[in-house]
Design brief:
heterodimer, A: mainly alpha, ABC transporter involved in vitamin B12 uptake, BtuC, 3-stranded mixed β-sheet, 15 helices, globular, B: alpha/beta, 2 domains, 4-stranded antiparallel β-sheet, 10 helices
């Protein structure tokens, strides 16, 4: 993980001259330090602490929450490419998460027990099913998702933004439904239906088997994958394709008149975004040790979108902050807060059930007072603030 | 007759029952500076949009560089070498001037997703060189100092210049300027005439203008074509157009005896 960050520093210095307003290298350093510090803390320090302190962390920030949040980060970074960079509203991102998850289910378990294929897997050789190495499945899952991104994109990306959003919404509903009802598609069991596929194989890392409870090592893997997506995002953003995406976001017609192929560029955004969704899906399957169709709800697409909007569209660091904070509130923060309040006041309020009320409130607040997100891309900050006084837009589009 | 780089034959555009352009033939001679004028609603911009692929003509063909480009999508026509500016400036407002120019180089650059992610030597060289070219173009149009500014923060005149620089980044053979002096003061308009000739001579492009400012049109054009209500009513040198009766009628209205 460290290597890409150092490599990127070189290009980011060149970028600083362009006055993008955002010091990338500082953030890369901060991200790396935080990632390593968290690992050291959970792998070595937390067990040495007195019970009161470690119990506090167990309640407010258990290692499993950290790992799950990282899966959200990976997916949110993918959605950021589609929504934040290319400006295409996607309300069905959960589809890619699901497809990635089922790739793990298909290729890392004994689900297809008719066959017996083992490639680089930690599973015992006599175990039936397709057992590929976790790293291979990551790659396959990401590529399959990217291909699906293109397949969905090709007919729909000609639509104007609102209609595109509706179609992606439909797609995000269809794919999980296919998995949910897919135990008998013409006699073929695609997904094991509502029972899901479980368990998936352990991750193999340097000949070590990482079971469901090896959270520290999995953390390292997940954080590296998140770093990989940051790296990919920043690199593409700074190059030819990233400029084309931004131009399309700014003025589609002018972009096409300047020789930018709209369909190809948009499809590329979909594919890269879906690629990331696939990685997140595979990672999530190993995190929960299985794939379960009922988890892939529409709410996931909306939460991902909220993460991107809250953090700051188009800025990877903002998206990371948004994803981490919403994922934490959703899985740990709100339940732990509710528990504390209930035990202190003797009440019995089901706090986690109010999560959408909270998210909705946050989104309304953000749209009213901080439209550009917590850590906005410098460009967007400008447009959203100038929209308020609308004086400086002379002939600009 | 000199060879023409872009030729439009019998172009008609109908929007439902409305005939916006009616059987217009037109050409841009290689290395020429020609103008398209006419009263408001004469179909000039519609005709422009046919040339750049934004509208498909109901009938007629557009030939560029001996190739038929009639039904090609806009980005293909742009890549082939037809660049344009817009009547109401359409820059990428939240991108820097330099980035605006680099967007138009898209089709000349080759690096793909993988080489961009890996940051191969070839990709980095390409980026560096395109950045250099962009700076040169910005210098050429006279806004070299504003390379790092967001396009929307530039002054109006500089935005017009940036549009030209961006169009030139396509390495076009034909440059279409849609009302380039709109909003300029008389002083700026005067220097604009010299600028057009400098662009043609140094960048080796043929130029077509749509223009309302008659003093500019008469000074800059080698040939003028007049459209009225979708039809071509006159074509000739500035001197000929000035004295053409139909043109005067189109602009000032017909006299009572011949009026419909």
């Amino acid at each position: 993980m460290k290597k890409p960050s150092i490599k990127f520093n070189k290009t980011s210095k060149g970028k600083k001259e362009i006055n993008k307003g955002f010091d990338q290298s500082k953030w890369i350093r901060g991200f790396t330090i935080a990632a390593v510090a968290i690992w050291i803390f959970y792998a070595f320090i937390v067990d040495l602490l007195p019970y009161v302190v470690s119990d506090f962390f167990q309640k407010w920030l258990p290692a499993t929450t950290v790992n799950e949040s990282l899966v959200w980060v990976i997916c949110a970074l993918g959605l950021n490419i589609v929504v934040g960079y290319a400006g295409l509203l996607d309300l069905g991102f959960v589809a890619f998460w699901a497809i990635g998850g089922y790739c793990a289910g298909w290729f890392m378990s004994d689900f297809f027990h008719q066959v017996n294929i083992h490639i680089g897997s930690m599973a015992p050789a006599e175990q039936p099913g397709i057992h590929l190495s976790f790293w291979g499945v990551l790659f396959i899952g990401a590529l399959i998702c990217a291909a699906f991104g293109v397949i969905i994109g090709a007919p729909t990306l000609r639509l104007k933004s609102d209609y595109l959003a509706l179609v992606t919404l439909g797609f995000g509903e269809i794919i999980p439904q296919i998995f949910y009802n897919g135990e008998n598609i013409g006699g073929f069991n695609l997904s094991n239906g509502s029972k899901g596929i479980s368990p998936v194989d352990n991750i193999g890392l340097f000949g070590k088997k990482l079971g469901p409870f090896d959270l520290d090592w999995k953390y390292l893997i997940f954080v590296s994958l998140a770093a990989l997506m940051v790296f990919i995002s920043l690199r593409i953003r700074g190059g030819r394709l990233g400029r084309a995406w931004l131009a399309i976001r700014e003025d589609e017609l002018a972009a096409s008149m300047m020789g930018v192929p709209l369909m190809r560029s948009k499809l590329a955004a979909y594919a890269v975004g879906a690629f990331s969704g696939g990685i997140g899906g595979v990672a999530f399957a190993t995190h929960v040790n299985g794939v379960f169709a009922d988890r892939f709800s529409f709410a996931i697409s909306i939460i991902l979108l909220a993460m991107v909007v809250l953090g700051g569209m188009g800025n990877v660091w903002g998206v990371i902050v948004g994803a981490l904070s919403i994922a934490w509130v959703n899985s740990t923060g709100l339940p732990a807060f509710g528990e504390t309040v209930n035990s202190a006041l003797g009440t019995n309020i089901n706090f986690p059930s109010y999560n959408f009320l909270l998210f909705g409130g946050i989104l309304i607040f953000m749209m009213l007072y901080k439209r550009e997100g917590l850590l906005p891309e410098s460009r967007l900050k400008q447009i959203l603030h100038e929209a308020d006084d609308s004086t400086s837009n002379i002939g600009g589009h | 007759m000199t060879k023409s780089v872009l030729q439009a034959d019998n172009i008609s555009v109908k929007f439902g029952g409305l005939i916006a352009v009616d059987d217009v033939s037109f050409d841009i001679p290689t290395g020429g500076v020609v103008s398209l004028i006419g009263p408001n609603g004469a179909g000039k911009t519609t005709f422009f949009n046919v040339l750049t692929g934004l509208y498909k003509p109901t009938s007629g063909t557009v030939t560029f560089d001996d190739k038929n480009i009639t039904a090609k999508p806009p980005h293909k026509i742009a890549q082939a070498g037809v660049a344009r500016t817009f009547q109401n400036i359409r820059l990428f407002g939240l991108m820097t001037a330099e980035e605006n120019v680099m967007v138009a180089m898209h089709s000349h650059l080759k690096s793909g997703i993988i080489s961009t992610i890996l940051g191969t030597k070839k990709q980095r060289t390409e980026e560096r060189e395109s950045k250099k070219t962009a700076r040169e173009l910005l210098e050429f149009v006279g806004i070299g100092n504003s390379a790092d500014q967001f396009a929307r923060n530039l002054s109006y005149g500089d935005q017009r210049r940036l549009e030209v620089a961006r169009a030139l980044a396509l390495k076009p053979k034909v440059l279409l300027l849609d009302e380039p002096t709109a909003g300029m003061n008389p002083q700026e308009s005067k220097t604009f005439v010299d600028f057009v000739y400098r662009v043609r001579d140094e960048k080796d492009v043929s130029i077509l203008l749509i223009e309302h400012d008659m003093s500019v049109v008469m000074k800059v054009s080698e040939r003028i074509t007049v459209l009225d209500r979708g039809q071509k009513i006159a074509e000739g040198t500035p001197a000929e157009i000035k004295s053409n009766k139909r043109v005067i009628e189109a602009y000032l209205g017909k006299s009572a005896e011949s009026g419909k």
